Amino acid sequence: MSERIKNHVNQRMNVLQRLEQSTFWRARTEQERTLLLTACAVILCALVYSLLIKPAWFGRAQLERDLPLLRQQTTQLQSWAKEAATLSNHTTLTITPMTKEGLEVSLARHGLSAKNVVVSGHVAKVELSSISFASLLNFLDEIQKTARISVLEANVLTSSVAVSNGSVNATLTLRQSQLEGQ
Question: How confident is the prediction for the chain on average, in pLDDT?
Fold first, then answer.
């Protein structure tokens, strides 16, 4: 370790000797040299302070201010994660099986009446005539969200009766996703 320090000091002395030998440095008086060395030392100290000490000091102060809030947020997130884990373990989604009556009630809720509804297991065929296309989309959206019923096949044609009011004829093949536990 002491050998390293000696090498370092020798290097600095060599720099000072070269500086003294330069024409610029020789042209300066002793007072100017002292003033220049002092100015360089002040500039070096200012750089060290502004680049190393100040960011560390104020960064630490910022962390001390923010740390309690961050800890509180971490605790809250952990409690939410635990709550979500317990809720996901305890809640089971119960979906009623698809029935003809259930489909007809859902259709009626949207102002639709089916020409024919045939349900066989998890698959149903629904025929509708002269219905509003918007109501049909609302019906499909509801049954998809509430009963996990998706459309396997859809045949939608504009109605010849009332083209101007957006009426359509539709034949839908619907399928309900497998229920939990089956």
Answer: 84
Confidence of residue 43 (pLDDT cuts 50, 70, 90): very high
Per residue in 89-106, pLDDT (tens digit) is: 765 667 788 899 989 999
169, 162 contact by CB (below 8 A) = no
| Cα separation, 118 vs 174, whole angstroms | 10
**Residue 179: CB partners within 8 Å, gap ≥ 6?**
95, 97
Q: 84: how many CB neighbours lie within 10 A of its CB?
A: 10
Output the CA torsion sign for 29, 31, 32, 38: positive
Strands (E), the chain: 114-120, 123-132, 149-158, 167-176
Instruction: State the Cα–Cα distance between residues 111 and 134, nearest whole angstrom.
Output: 11
The pTM of the full predicted model, rounded to 2 decimals, is 0.48
DSSP state of 163: T
Rounded Cα–Cα distance for residues 123 and 86 (Å): 34
Q: Where do we find the tokens 């698959």? A: 123
For 155-173, what is each residue's pLDDT tens digit? 998 866 655 677 888 999 9
CA 120 – CA 143 distance, rounded (Å): 17
